[in-house]
Amino acid sequence: xxxxxxxxxxxxxxxxxxxxxxxxxxxxxxxxxxxxxxxxxxxxxxxxxxxxxxxxxxxxxxxxxxxxxxxxxxxxxxxxxxxxxxxxxxxxxxxxxxxxxxxxxxxxxxxxxxxxxxxxxxxxxxxxxxxxxxxxxxxxxxxxxxxxxxxxxxxxxxxxxxxxxxxxxxxxxxxxxxxxxxxxxxxxxxxxxxxxxxxxxxxx
Length: 204
Hints:
This protein is an alpha+beta fold.
């Protein structure tokens, strides 16, 4: 199964980086600070350094900077979907409803909050994937109607992820058919309008 981060490589490179930093720190401390500093204490240094590196790599700010850099040099990388999105839901009868969404994505998880004028949805499960080289996002959600007398329902979508370029700019688009446990079907299409995921997109 495809993942945004290959944890085998992350652990391997973190271990190598930890060893290099720990040895450098030990040499510096022994040379300029404590000449009798014990080699066995490098284990303690390694633990501290390893923890610090993992926390830094998984922090949203640092991870997004590294993610953006990787996407610049490797266009096949899974894109950073964080931000605000707008689009439409097309119902079975052809009618369309405006929707807005916020996507909060880290190296470990993806959360999508979808808001319409009469309903809003929360994420139950998301899985980034590659199918024949195409980037996609499995999305399972629970929708709660605005009218409290209407029951909530679950649905699923397989989003295609596209980078759309125009003369003025470029933006990401997500689109895919949805299916619900109410036996309804339709299509969702949204485009990224901002990379800020702290914007309020709710209708009510």
